[in-house]
């Protein structure tokens, strides 16, 4: 998919969500051929000509001023994530990279890994925009144990596991919500890094092999993922629902540290303690196996 087609489909999908009533416009006639606003209505709300808006919705955002992009975002009532995505698409179509590039990154700084490992009471990991888990602490590895099998591809990728591994659906009990979040995060990253071959390769594989991913991808939803709650169905301790906070690493652009926690005296807190005990047992068993093998 080209950036122009992404712009076209994104703007059209947002336009379809806004009714005339929601936009504060009179709804003339009872037989509207579109589910949301017409192009001419968006043009009027944005203060641009109909011909110019039609050109924008066809993907020709290159050269559009910030004022115009803001006006379109306001007319379509875009939220923070959608507005940022529209700006990412505008920048991408203006740059027009000559070739697709694969992002390369060296190892994480030791100081970042030490911070991660010091979080002994919270499952935590560092991921990139492609949803590769690049580093994980002891409790995080225990929580995501189904992803860290001996035959798992490297790096471990949350989206690939979720959609292509037969255990993915079991691990995420809030399946629909989890699917929508994962796809929206990848769609957001695709807007930020449209020329990244590792990202487009992953998306291509998921679109080809998963109908559920393909359906969700076509919705063009995006989101920011800073805080919330997430549920897991762990094979050893059962279902656990935790609060999460995701923090971007300023010194490592594109990387996010996600940490899970639970309030004291809650079932989730008890489940975390059970997870820690299970992790300790697994570590002891692995150590014993290494000793026996030597």
UniProtKB/TrEMBL annotation:
**Domain HTH cro/C1-type: from-to ranges:** 36-83
Q: What is this protein called?
A: Helix-turn-helix transcriptional regulator
SMART domains given in the database record: HTH_XRE
In terms of SUPFAM superfamilies, this protein maps to: lambda repressor-like DNA-binding domains
Q: Which Pfam families match?
A: HTH_31, MLTR_LBD
User: Which CDD domains does the record associate with it?
Assistant: HTH_XRE (cd00093)
């Amino acid at each position: 998919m080209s950036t122009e087609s992404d712009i076209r489909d994104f703007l059209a999908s947002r336009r379809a969500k806004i009714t005339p009533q929601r936009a504060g416009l009179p709804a003339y006639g009872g037989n509207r051929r579109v589910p949301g606003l017409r192009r001419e209505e968006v043009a009027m709300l944005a203060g641009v000509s109909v011909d110019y808006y039609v050109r924008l919705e066809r993907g020709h955002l290159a050269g559009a001023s910030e004022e115009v992009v803001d006006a379109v975002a306001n007319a379509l009532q875009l939220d923070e994530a959608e507005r940022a995505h529209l700006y990412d698409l505008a920048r991408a179509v203006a740059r027009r990279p000559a070739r697709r590039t694969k992002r390369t990154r060296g190892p994480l700084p030791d100081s970042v890994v030490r911070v991660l490992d010091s979080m002994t009471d919270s499952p935590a990991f560092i991921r990139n925009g492609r949803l590769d888990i690049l580093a994980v602490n002891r409790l995080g590895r225990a929580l995501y144990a189904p992803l860290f099998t001996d035959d798992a591809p490297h790096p471990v990728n949350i989206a690939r596991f979720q959609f292509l591994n037969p255990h993915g659906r079991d691990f995420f009990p809030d399946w629909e919500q989890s699917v929508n979040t994962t796809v929206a995060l990848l769609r957001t990253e695709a807007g930020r890094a449209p020329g990244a071959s590792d990202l487009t390769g992953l998306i291509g594989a998921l679109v080809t092999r998963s109908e559920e991913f393909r359906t969700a991808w076509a919705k063009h939803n995006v989101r920011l993922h800073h805080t919330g709650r997430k549920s897991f169905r762990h094979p050893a301790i059962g279902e656990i629902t935790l609060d999460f906070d995701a923090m971007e690493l300023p010194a490592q652009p594109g990387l996010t540290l996600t940490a899970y926690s639970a309030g004291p005296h809650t079932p989730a807190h008890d489940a975390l303690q059970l997870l820690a005990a299970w992790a300790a047992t697994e570590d002891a068993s692995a150590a014993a196996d290494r000793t026996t093998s030597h």
